[in-house]
Amino acid sequence: MRASNRLSAKGAAALGPGKYSDGAGLWLVKDESMRGKWVLRVTVHGRRREMGLGSFPAVSLAEARKYAEAARAQVRGGLDPIKERQRERREAARNLHVLKDVALDAFETRKASLKGDGKAGRWFSPLEIHILPKLGRVPVADIDQADIRDCLAPIWHTKAVTAEKALSRLAICMQHAAALGLQVDLQATVKARALLGKSRHREQNIPALSWKDVPEFYASLNDGTVTHLALRLLILTGARSGPLRFLHESQVHGDVWTIPGETMKGRKDATPDFRVPLVPEALAIIEVAKAHAREGFLFPSVRKGVISDATMARLMERRGMKERPHGFRSSLRDWLAETTDAPHDVAETMLGHVVGRSVERAYRRTDFLEQRRALLARWAKHVTGQSGQVVELVRA
After folding, report:
1. Contact yes or no for 256/278 (Cβ under 8 A)
2. Which of 207, 222, 208 lies closest to 385 in space, CA to CA?
3. Whole-angstrom Cα distance, residue 226 to residue 224?
4. CA torsion, ordered 295, 298, 299, 300, to nearest 10 deg
5. Sequence ranges of the domains in the chain
6. How many CB atoms lie within 10 A of CB 58?
7. Angle, CA of 149, 155 and 158, to the nearest 5°
8. 151-161: b (≥16 Cβ within 10 Å) or e
9. Which residue, among 28, 20, 21, 18, has the nearest Cα to 3 in the 3D structure?
10. N or C: which terminus of the chain carries fewer CB neighbours within 10 A?
């Protein structure tokens, strides 16, 4: 009698309930319904194991023999075929993770390093808008440079900044997938960039009003509304619109406005708070704004929350101006450069910019508060139509 290949396909189909050996450890086990299953008996590390190879007749005799021989080969190689199959299934399951799930998990992991735990959505939105609609349901293991190129090509030259953000966020997601143990191509985004080529987009600065024209505009903001008051304080302090729009009464102590570090652009939660000196003109505006305050916020919107950046921009747009609120920071910076002797570090700190390398910042403990106060006092004289001489600063 043959040691193996004892059964035939036709004979196996005709067999009744029972256990039938094909040899070399392969068995067909049939039940009363005439259906059955294939079982392979092997000895691994001195221990007898039984391994299912599929149901009968869905798995044919030829297929069962093929699966059995592969398992025997693993045993000869010192492996447990049952554990190997379990491992392969786990890997297959991991590789089925789609990009959307990985992206959400990556976002959750990074929230602690984002402003406000990423609630504004700016980190995730490039992925959500430009990547996930096309690739969100694709397993990360299947994503290659061609997929990424086809996804970003429509905006690569027209929305270059957004496309770059989407690509960098996707690279982070691919790295996150690799850290999860998924098989991904970590060079896919790099190769996609090569396929996309150099962007034809040219960065344009936000239009800014000349510092010489700021007094006339400032004087026109005279109706005491929330929008007018917010724009006036924006001009006087040189602050970004985000922290200003969310200015809360609790942030003002005497003649200093303390902006929480996590709300500063490009900064993380560990960054110290940023102090803004408030000159008399700015303090007067805050006092008037308190009459409009809601839940402590000095610049509330009509319905809920605070006014949007678009609210201030629309005011300028309605006047036929191409300039935008953020441009007043440039107005201030140009004024500093052209009419004062402000040192570079002081001028940059006035705009809340991080100055110097990390080691240099570690040793420099001053935030130039009093120097900035003197400069903002003169800036206030300028924007309110008064004259002032060049300010001599005490060097830190």
Report:
1. yes
2. 222
3. 7
4. 10
5. 9-85, 99-196, 214-383
6. 10
7. 140
8. bbeebbeebbe
9. 21
10. N
Question: Which contacts qualify for 1-9: CB closer than 8 Å, 24 or more apart?
Answer: 5/65, 7/61, 8/61, 9/60, 9/61, 9/62
Tokens of 84: 């190997």
CATH 3.30.450.20 assigned to domain 9-85? The reply is no
Element containing residue 36 per DSSP (H, E): strand 36-44
pTM of the entire structure?
Answer: 0.54
Output the six-digit token pair for 370. Answer: 């009093």
The winner for highest mean pLDDT among 84-88, 246-250, 267-271 is: 246-250
**Residue type, position 362, single letter:** A
User: Which residue carries 């936000």 as its tokens?
Assistant: 206
Q: What is the pLDDT of residues 3-56, one digit of tens each?
A: 778 888 888 888 889 998 888 889 999 988 778 899 999 898 888 888 898 889
Say whether 234 sits in a helix, a strand or coil: helix
**Which architecture, in CATH terms, is 214-383?**
Orthogonal Bundle (1.10)
Give exposure, 9-18, as e/b (b: 16+ Cβ within 10 Å): eeebeeeeee
